[in-house]
Amino acid sequence: MTIVTRRNLVIGGGLAASTAAVFGATLIPPAKQGNAQALTVEDVLYDPDNPVLGNPDGDVTIVEFFDYQCPYCKANHPDLVDVVAEDGNIRLVMKDWPIFGAPSVRASQLALGAADSGAYKTANEALMGTQGRLSKEDIEAALIAADLDVSDLDSAYRANRDTWDGLMSRNGAQAAQLGLQGTPAFIIGTAIYPGSMDRAALLDAVAQSRA
After folding, report:
1. Separation CA 27–CA 161 (nearest Å)
2. Residue 157 is inside which H or E element, if any?
3. Rounded to an integer, what distance in angstroms lies between the CA atom of residue 41 and that of residue 19?
4. Can you tell me the distance from the alpha carbon of 135 to that of 102, in angstroms, rounded to the nearest whole number?
5. Which residue, 54, 66, 195, 45, is CA-closest to 128?
6. What is the per-residue pLDDT across 179-202, written as a single tens digit (0 to 9) for each?
7. Segment 67-115, tens digit of pLDDT
8. At 122, which helix (H) or strand (E)?
9. Domains present along the chain, CATH in parentheses
10. What strands, in cross-sheet order, belong to the sheet with 90-96?
């Protein structure tokens, strides 16, 4: 399904010409946040703890807020991966936002644990290739099939738990501040696209970001 609705990240600030033009700009004015810290484009696109896929130096960043149990996220993923690979100049930031319960949290914990050994992409692809709702056994089977050691992933996650739990907490807080209603939700350049995006929609959004 192609999503044509989009919102600009800089609320009330007009459409930015590029991400660089609005670095440090407030996404949600402090007056609307009470005592919450203002959210910036850099916070969302360049969290230093978030694994980066695609081209780390790409001229366009795609952010996806996702959950490993979200059927739309998983159905959308092959198009997303293909667009990123074929373009070659896109940074892809997958923001683990586990909102579908304990299995989602566990899947994200293990995938993020894989990041410490450079295997986040492998774990992410394995879990995004699953079908439907997940059990603990489903999660472990998918990772094992991808030649990953679940015990090692769990140990890595626990050794760096403050970092990974902090990242997931920030992802959830950002989603709330941006008014996201669920997964998937994309940010491409500085525009928010809630809901699934097919190949054509992704290509169009990337082109608009570069225009």
Report:
1. 28
2. helix 150-159
3. 8
4. 9
5. 66
6. 999 999 999 999 999 999 999 999
7. 999 999 999 999 999 999 999 999 999 999 999 999 999 999 999 999 9
8. helix 120-128
9. 7-210 (3.40.30.10)
10. 7-8, 191-194, 185-188, 60-66, 90-96, 53-54
For residue 71, whether the previous peptide bond is cis, meaning omega lies within 30 degrees of 0, is no
Half-sphere exposure (Cβ direction) of 111: Cα atoms closer than 13 Å: 30
* 160 DSSP 8-state letter: T
Cα angle 101, 96, 200; round to 5? 115
pTM for the model stands at 0.84
CA 67, 74, 43: angle at the middle one, nearest 5?
Answer: 45
DSSP string, 7-61: EESSTTS---S-TGGGTT-BSS-GGGTTTSPPPBHHHHH--TTS--EE-TT-SEE
Helix (H, G, I), strand (E, B) or coil at 114: helix
**Residue 68 near residue 107 (C-beta atoms within 8 A):** yes
How many C-alpha atoms does 144 have within 13 Å on its Cβ side?
8
Q: What are the φ and ψ backbone dihedral angles of 191, each rounded to 5 degrees?
A: -110, 140
Distance of CA 199 to the CA centre of its chain: 17
Report the alpha-carbon distance of residue 30 to residue 151 in Å, rounded: 43
Tokens encoding 159: 């050794």
